[in-house]
Amino acid sequence: MLREIPSELMIPPRLVLDRDSFEQVVDRLERGQNCGRVEMPGRNVMNIEWTGPSASTGKEQISLAIRVTAGQLVAEAVYRLVTRILASRGIDHLLLKGPHLGAIAYAETWQRHYGDLDVLVKPGDFHNALSALVDGGLALSAKPAGRDATIAAYYNRGLLAPQGWLVELHRAFSGYDLFRIDYDALFARAVPFRFGQTEARGLALEDLLLHLVVHAAKSHFRSIAPKHVQDVALLAAHQPVSWALFLTRAEEAGLLYSLLDTTVGGGKNSRRGDS
Description:
- There is one protein chain.
- The protein contains 11 helices and 11 strands.
- Strands 5-6-9-8-7 form a 5-stranded mixed sheet.
- It is globular, with a radius of gyration of 19 Å.
- The chain has one domain (8-203): Beta Polymerase, domain 2 (2-Layer Sandwich).
- The protein is of the alpha+beta class and 275 residues long.
- The longest helix is centred in the first third of the chain and has 30 residues, at 59-88.
């Protein structure tokens, strides 16, 4: 299951974990040990800190933590590739949702699982960024036949990285300009965080919370999952949110009613199940 991985797990720009090295990591994780330094002759050294459940924890939770951690190693590799490609074209970007939330809202990063990477660029950079990623080896996901106008107006496009991980390139928080977002100001307020061993930039705290509201509201809460409600709760509990500033941002974006729906109705809708 976990060991069904590609023959090489690429960790750009200079590091490769081959199958044997990956097996060392997995074996140590399964024993609840710190992986420490994984030595690879002739290559750099990668430090992997294991902060998951101890061996005394139930096997199901340990198994989940190992699977999520392994997936996040691949995601970090893909993100380094994306960062390098976009930087080569001088395109600024922000990393959204899962990795940022795992780094600042959850006790351990493996507790916030995700299945893709959401990368935001400014609307005017979108087509250049899309072209750069395709030129850099990512493959565009298929689009519905006869829906070119819809796709052209949509707020993101999916791409598949060579490592098999999905990247969603965003030009906006939602489709059809439903909310009033000043993206230049948004990027100017961006903050640094660490995605594993990799430096990244994400939304400022109040903007991050606002994006979580948008993520729920844009589908009228049809696709909200328990983890999305938990994101809001943990972010508010563990970070010093300026509620006055947050309400100002929400009002500027036209999100005050959606904010009410998120806090009052979101919990009930979240019972529809995780996805």
